[in-house]
User: Fold this.
Amino acid sequence: MGARKSALGKSYCARQLIFGRQAWILDPKPEYQRLCQAVGGVYVSLEPGGAVRLNPLEALIRDRRPEAIHRARMDLMLPLVEAALGRPLRPVEQTGVDGAVNVAAAGQEPTLRDVLEANVRAKRGTGRAHADERDRDARRAARGGLRAAPPGGRRPLRHVRRADLGGIDLEAPVVAFDLSRIKSYTSLGVVMICVAAWLRRLLAESDDGVRRIIVYDEAWKVLRVPGVARFLNESWKMARQWGVQNIAIMHRLSDLISVGDAGSEAIELARGLLSDSQTRVVYQQASNELQGLRELLQLTDKEVTAVSGLHPGSALWKVGQRSFLVEHQVSRFERWIVHTEPREREPAAC
Assistant:
C-alpha cells in the first residue's frame, strides 16, 4: 500500500460522514468506488462519449446581472484555456476568450463546445482556419462527458435532484468522479477544472449549511498544467467562505516546486497552495527529498529525522505551527474500503 496516503483520504472521508459532512472526490486512479458502495454514495464515470454530462458554464449564481454571470464564466474559462494550451494566455488572447464567451452566450446557456466553436469562427475570420493540436485536445475534453446539463438558473444545492447530470444524486454522502479514462495530463487538468468549477459554483450558491470535503487525489499529475495551480489556489482561498475543506493528495511535496521554472508564476501559485493549507500530512520521504521538505515546511532537525524514519501508515502532521506523529489505524470495516492495491491479499468485507 506504499505510504497509505489514499488510505487516509478514504478513511478520513468515511469518518467525517458521522459529523454530517459530505465528500466530493475527483478520482483519477480510480480508487473510491468501495467507499461509495460502503456508505451509500455515488460513483460517477466521466469518459469520452460518456452518458454523464455537466456544463461548468451554467449560470448557477444568485446575481443575475449579465456582467456578473459573464465574470463567473470568465473565471472558469481563463484557467481552462490556459490548461488546454499548456501556457499562460497573452492579453490579446484573454480578450479573444472574452469575446468568444460573449458570442456563445448570446440568447442561450452556453456550453464549452459553443465557446470553442465561437473561437474557431473568430479565427477563421482572421485567416486562422485551423485550431492547433492543443485546441483539439481541449475540444475532445469538452466532448468527453462534459456537455450541457439542463439549464435552470439559480438552484441551491438542496434542490439539485436526480434528474440532473444523468441521474446523479448530489446529496449522497459521498460523490466520487472517476476520471481514470482521461489519459493525458493536459486533458485531465482541463476536466478537473471543469468538474471542480461546476461543484464550487454550486457551493457558492448553496445555503443548506452542510460542511463539505473536496478531495483532489493524484493532484501532482495536473499541477504542471498551466491554469490548474491558479484555479486550485483560488479554491483554497475561498474554502472558509464556502464551508469547504480542500484536500490535495500528492506523492511528494517537491511536486509543488517542479511545476515551473524558478521564480515563475506557477511556482509562486504552488507555494501559495501549500501556505494556504493549514494541515499538512507528511509520510515517509526519500532521503533526497528531505532538504526540500525542510525548506518548504520549515521543519526542525527533529522533525526531519522523524520523517526519514516513518513506517507505512505513520505520518508527521503539521497543524498550524504544531506538529504530531500520528499512526493511522483502520478498523476491520475500513480495511475493505481502503484496500485498492491488487498485489495485496484481499481482506474480507464486513
User: Anything to note?
Assistant: Residues 196 and 266 are 19 Å apart (CA to CA).
